[in-house]
Amino acid sequence: MASRRVLITGAGSGLGREMAKVYAAKGDRVACVDLYADRAEETMRMLPGGGHLALVADVGSDAAMAALKGQVVGAWDGLDVLVNNAGIASGGECAHVSMAEWQRTLNINLMGVVRGVREFVPLMERQGRGHVLSTASFAGLAGAPGLGAYGVAKAAVISLSEGLRAELQPKGIGVSVLCPSFFKTRLLETATDTAALPLKHVAAKLMEQSPIDAADVARFAIEESERGRFLLLPHKDTRTRVLMKRLFPEYYFRQVLKYVDKARRRGGG
What we know:
The chain has a single domain (5-238), classed as 3-Layer(aba) Sandwich (Rossmann fold), CATH 3.40.50. The chain is globular. The chain starts with a strand and ends with a helix. It has helices at residues 14-25, 37-46, 62-76, 99-127, 139-142, 148-168, 197-209, 214-226, 236-247, 249-266, and strands spanning 5-9, 29-34, 53-56, 81-84, 130-135, 173-178, 231-232. The protein has ten helices and seven strands. By secondary structure, the protein is α/β, with parallel strands linked by helices. Strands 3-2-1-4-5-6-7 form a seven-stranded parallel beta sheet, with helices on both faces.
């Protein structure tokens, strides 16, 4: 496989960093994009091979994403793989999350993906090839309580990816959406709204107990997207739950309530 030009947002830590390592190990050139320059540069220094970039951009800003496209076009004159990975944590009951938190979460977790698509997909359309991989979450499928704006934003990323897939497949461009469950990252550091606090410690506990880590999720996502798969579920138990929800929605709903109650008790909540 020829060297590809890969852009990853949120590449300064966690899943984004692990994805950068996987792509670089394949011989690809990676643009490591992060809100913080030192984190982007740290990731870039970890990568084998050459031709990588360390770039700074806020996915929550139209102007910043437009400037990012200019930098990428100036360096590479195109893009082969767009990984919309940057995101923040949030939570709380829907009626009690502040409007500021709704706006913050939707702007980063949903509109950040929209900005990536609007800036970089037209480059792929002109090339007649490419792939878009967006990080959503099982939270976008689960229909679980306490997810607030986070669950809504991730569900919207899945819906966006479904529509985008239908639009781009005839143009030779693939689309995948990654929906992991809990695994250990620094994501909870970005949770700021007090409405999320009651469940934050539960999420932390579930992250620690996950059977897979960020490196496992990165490898799975990239391997499956390269096989042309659309919905990427790296946790085995979530594959069963997605099927259950489709076939037996009321039974699934009852199981969700039981699971959340058990998780709260296990986490000490």
